[in-house]
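Schema walkthrough. Field components (list of strings):
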Amino acid sequence: MTSSSDTIVQPADAAGRINIDPRWREATGRGVTVAIVDSGIDTSHPDLDGKIISSVEARLEDRRVVFEPSSAGDSAGHGTACAGIVAQIAPDVEIHSIKVLGAGGIGDGQAFLAALEYAINCRYRVINLSLGTTKPQFFSPLHDLLDRAYQAGCVVVAAANNLPQPSFPSIFSSSLIAVTKSSTTDPFDFGFNFGEVIELTAPGVNVRTAWPNGGYRNLTGNSFACPHVSGVIARLLEYHPEFTPFQVKTALYSIAKENQFAKGLERPAIG
Amino acid sequence: MSQDNGLSEKLRRLVETVDAASLLTEPLTSSIHELLKVSAMEVGAREASVLVRDGTTGDLRFLAATGAAAPQLMKMKVPAGKGIAGFVISSGQPMAVADVDEEASFYAEVDKATGFSTEMLLATPLSYHGEVIGVLEYVNRPGEPPHQPFTPEEMDKAALFGEAIASLVNAYESAKIFRELGEKVVGGSDEDFELDSIREWLEGVRSSAEHREMMDLAILIREVASRGENERALCREILGSVLKYSKSRDETNYLGL
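Field assembly_structure (string):
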């Protein structure tokens, strides 16, 4: 470890309890990489100026998905909206756009799997998946990829779909962080529902964020709660680059408990 | 002569199937339309529409819509991956937008063509057995402005209506495939017998949710069978029991297939 000892708080004390540097609340996500696997990003949006470090797009080559530099932007708006939310919370984060939706000629599921593998190979610290699939044939390969992400130290954040059918990968609660929307407006006021399939709640109702062509939109959906959590994790990782995905989740749990305690909803867990 | 008899018998059966399929599609579209009207009231929306995949290009077309702009909408297509509907069908994620009219977008193009003004939108995927087959959209609020954005509770309601509408859409699409084949074979001109045309139709069949589901099942059975005789015997026994159970249930398979 080369960082000076006065800026690093050890992730766990002798008893194994997690310590979170309180400065994370003022952090900006500096030096942390976030991959947005989505519909692409409009890099010319003023809110995202200089924040999009790379943009790639899925393309089919000899029945294999390959990723090439992309200047196609965002035809749907969703990826730009997600990047805008991450940038609001962690303005100095390094965003990498992986366009899989709207990439012509490739099955959505196939591109989605390839994009996740690409992001893991690039070792992006946070991988934002504001999308999912209900196709059962993707259950097993997604599970394998998420295990690989977990072992590689990539924190995968996925949006639940709130539909009657289970959506992958958001239901894999052990190896990723799954998020559903709440109507709170404070980005740090997220909740943790231990024991539920979807553990985290974050702002996702009428969220004002960037939209292609320099615009803004008020959007509602779990897919907009997900980048809130990605942004918060980027802040945490700025002060705790050594955190594993498990420790990130533990830290989120601890902060959520503090939030609930502050609101008088529940006493924090002891020990 | 006997060959001719065989052919005419086959054609007669085909005509019957086609007619049955045609008879099925009309009540299905009526049901979808009625359900759209009822659900729009429940969700608090002014209008509603259903979009489905158009062939294998990834484009979307309107299958049903309420309101005065419906006839124009039915002629329109949404290019692959474009707009909110394009995102919802690809991602499987529902979403609501409170201020669609803030800038020029795909919806501005639709509005220009229909004379309608899209202010807010709620879009939820239509899934059938794990496959996203379309998008259910609710547009604007009824009454005088100012209008409140769609709420999370209304999104949940839309998802429930989506369940029912997805089943009808899937049934419609299946019936439509039969109807189109019939039209090609029975009523079509010589041009319709071109290989390209038949190939396109087959692509349609193969890309349908139902067909893909059957193929997945076939792959699964093949994998189990390759494991050995014991697995094959167990698989046979389990499938036999499932079939027996299924037959014992009081269900009607309208096409008898």
